[in-house]
Amino acid sequence: MPFAPRLATVVERFLGSPLPVRLRAWDGSEAGPPGGPAIVVRHRRALRRVLFRPGELGLARAWVAGEIDVEGDLYAVLDRMLEPIQAERATPARQTLAAGRDLIQLAGPQLPVPPPLPPEEVRRRTGPLHSLRRDRQAISHHYDVGNEFYELVLGPSMVYSCAVWGEETAEGAGLEEAQTAKLELICRKLGLREGQRLLDVGCGWGSLVLHAARHHGVRAVGITLSAEQAAYARDRVAKEDLSDRVEIRVQDYRETADGPFDAISSVGMAEHVGATRYRAYADQVFGLLRPGGRLLNHQIARRPLPAGRTYRPDPFIDAYVFPDGELAPVGRTVALLERAGFEVRDVESLREHYAMTLRQWVRNLERHWSEAVRLTSAGRARVWRLYMAASALAFERGSIGVNQTLAVRPTSRGASGLPLRPRAWTEAS
């Protein structure tokens, strides 16, 4: 009997619903609705991966290894597959057991031997969670994969956080204009002025500190745990002749002790901090600010969980993308900043903007696919394509969001220095 119809039955039992996309098996057989995009199972080894690690991680390993692929629109496949999963239909236990037995038969005679892990997966993590050593390992896994690869994905701006489209950019503006608008928006929220000191925690490839020094005349310090990012950023600083105003350090926020700063930015970094250390992070940046200084915290957020449920990081992202990364609801972030002593003055959601940004990054990756594979590996490129496409859909569906939180270290008299209507960021502050 052809494999695809049997495999389709297994998938439908697990989903508790009809197969939402076409399925093609390694023997050329097909099943499911005709037309449209298709999931292609290129090797039965993919089934063994799912059996040895049921759920998302097993599927992710098969995807990274190239044993599962998509023909047609990747977004459409992910969207159609997410719908029955997120509907949380309760599949009867007897159906699940029957599907498991069928999957064992389809997986073939080599079942006792687990397939080798794709080399792109995180192998071993040493040290306590969110210790200095372990955080450096996690950051290196994600960011030290080659600056040329990131140039292909991110484009000339080399900004690895969501761009901002809207009134600040012309209609139809591209990614570079939208990223410049985001950098300028941050600088205006921070009220940067000539001669001030700015600390950028998690400075990436230096785009924000360069923009702030060039356009607002600040003296900026950027810190990162990625040696490759730091080298790239220092080269940019030298080329723009800003070495007298911009310093790039390979340094953890916990090791930074040369405050006070007039302003601190933390853009896309706090997701790496972890729930157990977030209050210490908030205390640290509070202590580095002068009274009246501003913090701009730009951070991805998840939805609050129902009562009784425990948060667990996404297994694919934890194993292949952001090891030890954690997301928190925006309310928890605001509460911890307030407990550290900050006065939170503004929270702006940019959820839709991140979906738009991710789709641009996916387009860049797909346009330069052969070069991306050459610079890293086929598996690494596949990790990025899946991660960014799935994340774009998650932002579009509202299951995750991203927020810019502006907070002030209060003065003894309570003055904030903010305009009376804080959202007037295009006006001088």
UniProtKB/TrEMBL annotation:
Chain residue ranges for the region called Disordered: 109-128
GO biological process: lipid biosynthetic process; methylation
InterPro entries, A to Z: CFA/CMAS, CMAS, MeTfrase_dom, SAM-dependent_MTases_sf
Keywords, ordered alphabetically: Lipid metabolism, Methyltransferase, S-adenosyl-L-methionine, Transferase
Membrane-crossing segments per the record: none
Top-level taxon: Bacteria
UniProt GO MF annotations: methyltransferase activity
Pfam families cross-referenced by the UniProt entry: CMAS (PF02353)
Domain (Polyketide synthase-like methyltransferase) ranges: 149-393
Keyword Coiled coil part of the UniProt annotation: no
Family, as annotated: Belongs to the CFA/CMAS family.
Name of protein: Class I SAM-dependent methyltransferase
